[in-house]
């Protein structure tokens, strides 16, 4: 837990841990949706605190752990925990991954408290199903490709339901009154078992024929699991009378998601020398297809017109014009012998070590032909299309045989699974931050940032100075930048100054304060002049744009044009303020949402209040801050990024600025009264219920500033609550993940800009907090975060680092973007200069 003792380690234990696993395809064939099973007891030997059932499995294309650490966005795959023996303890973790020829992929198994994992984990759609009901005469199991059932009586044979539409349909078949033999465009019973074994049912080889598991003292069933990855069923036969013996037999059936078939494993401890059998029902005119005599594993297949037309008795004529393929693949080393009787094409085989396994499958050429695909926003059938190409189904005998051989190869050459971790670990920080050169002083770090500033100004000065007046706007003209490449140190080209342009001007003004070198004054004036005169064309970011350009420019030059510019910006924010909601809307005066970032834009209003003595600026800022404290800050100190509300016109249609897709308009029916909240969400965090780290840092800094300006106790308590939340969530190196709830599980983005802003907020709060112990804590943690930034993330970060000096690596504007950010550069410089000065915070723009 977070401690207020500055002498203790104060960062929290990580909420989420991981185990790394390498999975390798040993063959030169693609292996899509490879079935993977890991033993939970084995995982617990490595990590005793492994929380089965509260886990996320992600996969990257990296082949090593070192490469995996550089992957920003691994792919989540559905996973499933199964209790095999019914003791309510987890036994296996199952999932599926795609593998290219000879590919190794790194799998990360992350686990932790459910309040964390289930904020991140996807909702896995059910892909398999299993039921037991008299309506289908026993046990049924299915993937979305096809369904099977076993007659749970003396027939003990396996039947088939075909599916033109990929879906789970057993529950429909079990509906009272529904006749599953009749034609349906989705699926129906298409197979005639008669008195044979059907499709891969177990039996015994007795006197030249397959004997069903018929005469038993007791037969029971158990559905072990049914979920997004696999379904497992168990059948137990006690006292099976066969060949003068009384045999106890267990049959486990496993159906994996997306597969046409299922694996069966039978076990018996008292079968002795009994020879077992399995096979496929013979159909008139359809010959058997067999693997070559010496192949292991051996397989048996059939292809032809063997699907029945359908009807109440399921004995209608063959459905001509369609073909159905069936197959059985024995496990390698089974010792299976080719055989047949009057009803079945068969394999006969002994048990080895008391067990035997085989895979049974069906491939209908109508599979997937009624696959409806909805167009974007589809609401009715006419807005769907039917897929007619790229259907992964068998339409010829050759395709069936190829598919069967693929199954045989998987059974013969299983993937290699190697657990790489020796203990549960946290997700690694960026590898280039792990081996710092040494500890830097604040001055040394400022000097590095100064090198970056000089390079940038020299490169872009001619572009900006040559631009015609008025041609650089928020969205037009060149010479401003937001994000860049943290390998080359180059800023990405952008149109206009965006909302971020003033952080560059602020860096230049800062450098002028520090050095008194006229080139910085010249540069700062040049870039600031591009912003002046456009104050009323902005949204709430007028605060950012003019507090960090015109305000420091006026303070340092006393140019009345810059004062007027800053006051126009402040007046624009006042004009945007909505007295109904007590908030400044983010995007327009009559908008329906505000974001946490606006707490930083209030700085322009605090300055205007002091500059003019006009209380209107303070009143608007205070009302916005108090309402934000009520609506945006959760009880634990985490922060909501965006709140939508009824601005006074009872609107039902809202705009998701910054959403996905951007600026999406949608209808949200509500009965909120004027001034009430309607919903909240995030633009850049992981989800609506998590805390985006940069937004949380904005809140800390903004509320600390608001308390400094007003001495309102509620604002101080809010700032402290957010600060304590941040300190309790930081990783060991003090640089947060882009979202505090996602500790590198779904996206592996750190955000150094959030760290720089938080350090500045903590440093400011340390001066304002009356509690000496808290003040010491906040100061020490601001220093710790800053030292981590300048030692681990500010280039050069390691011996031989080729990146130019002064680049703050690993900022995340919007995940998974990763690179240098202009506001990260600025807030680090601001904090460093405050720490390097005798009076911390005194040189911050706008400070009194």
Q: Which properties best describe this structure?
A:
disordered C terminus; 848 residues; 23% strand; eight-stranded antiparallel sheet; alpha+beta; disordered N terminus; five-stranded antiparallel sheet; elongated; 35 strands
Q: Overall 3D geometry?
A: elongated
Content-based structural category: alpha+beta
Q: What is the percentage of strand-forming residues?
A: 15-25%
Q: In order across it, which strands form the biggest sheet?
A: 15-16-17-18-25-22-21-20
Name the poorly predicted regions. Answer: 1-9, 838-848
Report Rg.
34 Å
Count of strand segments:
35
**Proportion of residues in helical segments:** 25-40%
Mean pLDDT: 94
Question: How do the strands and helices of this protein lay out in sequence?
Answer:
Elements: E1 16-24, E2 31-39, H1 40-46, E3 55-59, H2 65-68, E4 75-77, E5 79-82, E6 92-99, E7 104-112, H3 114-120, E8 129-133, E9 138-142, E10 146-151, E11 158-162, H4 170-173, E12 188-189, E13 203-206, E14 209-212, E15 218-226, E16 230-242, E17 245-256, E18 261-267, E19 276-281, E20 288-290, E21 299-304, E22 324-330, E23 337-340, E24 344-349, E25 355-364, E26 372-374, E27 384-386, H5 397-412, E28 416-419, H6 442-465, E29 483-484, H7 501-515, H8 518-529, H9 542-547, H10 550-557, H11 560-576, E30 593-595, H12 598-612, H13 615-632, E31 642-645, E32 653-656, E33 664-667, E34 677-681, H14 693-710, H15 713-729, H16 752-768, H17 772-793, E35 820-821, H18 822-836
Antiparallel strand pairs: 1-7, 1-28, 2-6, 3-4, 3-7, 5-6, 8-9, 9-10, 10-11, 11-12, 13-14, 13-19, 15-16, 16-17, 17-18, 18-25, 19-24, 20-21, 21-22, 22-25, 23-24, 26-27, 29-35, 30-31, 31-34, 32-33
Helix pairs in contact: 6-18, 7-8, 7-18, 10-11, 12-13, 12-14, 13-14, 14-15, 14-16, 15-16, 16-17, 16-18
């Amino acid at each position: 837990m977070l401690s207020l003792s500055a002498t203790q380690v104060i960062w929290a234990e990580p909420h989420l841990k991981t185990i790394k696993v390498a999975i390798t395809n040993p063959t030169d064939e693609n292996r899509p949706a490879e079935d993977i099973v890991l033993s939970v007891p084995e995982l617990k030997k490595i990590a005793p605190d492994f929380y089965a059932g509260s886990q996320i499995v992600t996969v990257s294309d990296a082949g090593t752990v070192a490469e995996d650490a550089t992957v920003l966005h691994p792919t989540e795959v559905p996973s499933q925990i199964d209790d095999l023996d019914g003791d309510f303890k987890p036994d296996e973790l199952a999932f599926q991954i795609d593998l290219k020829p000879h590919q190794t992929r790194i799998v990360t198994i992350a686990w932790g408290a459910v309040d964390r994992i289930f904020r991140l984990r996807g909702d896995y759609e059910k892909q398999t199903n299993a039921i037991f009901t008299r309506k289908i005469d026993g046990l049924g199991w299915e993937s979305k490709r096809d369904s099977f059932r076993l007659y749970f009586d003396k027939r003990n044979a396996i039947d088939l339901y075909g599916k033109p539409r990929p879906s789970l349909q057993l529950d429909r078949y079990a509906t009272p009154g529904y006749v599953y033999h009749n034609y349906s465009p989705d699926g129906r019973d298409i197979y005639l078992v008669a008195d044979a074994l059907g499709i891969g049912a177990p039996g015994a080889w007795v006197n030249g024929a397959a004997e069903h598991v018929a005469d038993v003292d007791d037969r029971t069933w158990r559905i072990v699991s049914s979920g997004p990855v696999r379904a497992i069923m168990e059948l137990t036969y006690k006292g099976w009378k066969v060949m003068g013996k009384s045999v106890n037999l267990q049959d486990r059936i496993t159906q994996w998601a997306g597969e046409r078939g299922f694996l069966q494993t039978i076990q018996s401890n008292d079968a002795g020398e009994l020879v077992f059998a399995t096979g496929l029902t013979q159909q008139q005119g359809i010959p058997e297809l067999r693997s070559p005599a010496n192949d292991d594993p051996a397989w048996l297949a059939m292809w032809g017109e063997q699907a029945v037309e359908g009807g109440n008795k399921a004995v209608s004529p063959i459905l001509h014009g369609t073909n159905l393929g069936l197959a059985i693949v024995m496990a390698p080393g089974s010792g299976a012998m080719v055989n047949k009787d009057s009803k079945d094409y068969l394999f006969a085989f002994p048990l080895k070590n008391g067990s035997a396994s085989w895979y049974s499958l069906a491939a209908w050429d109508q599979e997937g032909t009624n696959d409806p695909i909805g167009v974007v926003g589809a609401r009715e059938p006419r807005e769907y299309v039917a897929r007619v190409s790229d259907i992964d189904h068998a339409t010829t005998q050759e395709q069936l045989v190829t598919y069967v051989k693929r199954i045989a190869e998987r059974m013969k050459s299983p993937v290699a699974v190697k657990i790489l971790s020796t203990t549960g670990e946290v997700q690694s920080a960026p590898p280039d931050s792990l081996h710092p050169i040494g500890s830097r002083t604040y001055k040394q770090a400022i000097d590095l940032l100064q090198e970056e500033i000089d390079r940038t100004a020299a490169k872009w000065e001619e572009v900006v100075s040559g631009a015609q007046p008025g041609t650089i706007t928020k969205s037009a003209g060149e010479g401003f930048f937001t994000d860049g490449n943290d390998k080359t140190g180059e800023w990405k080209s952008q149109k206009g100054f965006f909302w971020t342009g003033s952080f560059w001007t602020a860096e230049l003004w800062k450098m002028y304060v520090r050095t008194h070198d006229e080139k910085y004054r010249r540069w700062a004036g040049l870039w600031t002049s591009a912003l002046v005169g456009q104050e009323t064309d902005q949204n709430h970011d007028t605060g950012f744009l003019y507090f960090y350009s015109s305000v420091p420019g006026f303070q340092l030059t006393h140019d009345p044009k810059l004062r007027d510019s800053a006051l126009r910006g402040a007046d624009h924010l006042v004009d945007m303020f909505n007295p109904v909601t007590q908030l400044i809307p983010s995007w327009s005066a009559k908008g329906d949402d505000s974001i946490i970032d606006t707490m930083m834009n209030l700085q322009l209003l605090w300055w205007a209040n002091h500059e003019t003595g006009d209380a209107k600026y303070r009143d608007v800022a205070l009302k916005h801050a108090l309402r934000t404290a009520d609506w945006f800050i959760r009880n634990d100190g985490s922060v909501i990024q965006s709140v939508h509300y009824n601005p006074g016109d009872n609107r039902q249609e809202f705009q998701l600025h910054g959403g996905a897709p951007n600026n999406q308009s949608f209808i949200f029916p509500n009965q909120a009264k004027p001034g009430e909240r309607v919903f909240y969400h995030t633009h850049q965090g992981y989800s609506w219920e998590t805390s985006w780290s940069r937004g949380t840092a904005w809140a800390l800094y903004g509320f600390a500033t608001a308390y400094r300006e007003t001495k309102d106790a509620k604002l101080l308590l809010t700032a402290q609550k957010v600060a304590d939340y941040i300190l309790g969530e930081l990783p060991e190196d003090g640089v947060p993940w882009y979202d505090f709830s996602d500790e590198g599980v779904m996206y592996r983005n750190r955000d150094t800009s959030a760290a720089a802003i938080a350090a500045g907020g903590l440093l400011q709060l340390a001066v304002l907090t009356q509690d000496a112990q808290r003040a010491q804590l906040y100061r020490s943690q601001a220093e710790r975060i800053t030292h981590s930034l300048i030692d681990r993330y500010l280039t050069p970060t390691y011996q031989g680092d080729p990146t130019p000096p002064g680049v703050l690596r690993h900022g995340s504007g919007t995940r998974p973007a990763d690179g240098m950010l202009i506001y990260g550069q600025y807030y680090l410089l601001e904090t460093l200069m405050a720490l390097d000065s005798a009076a911390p915070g005194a040189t911050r723009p706008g400070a009194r």
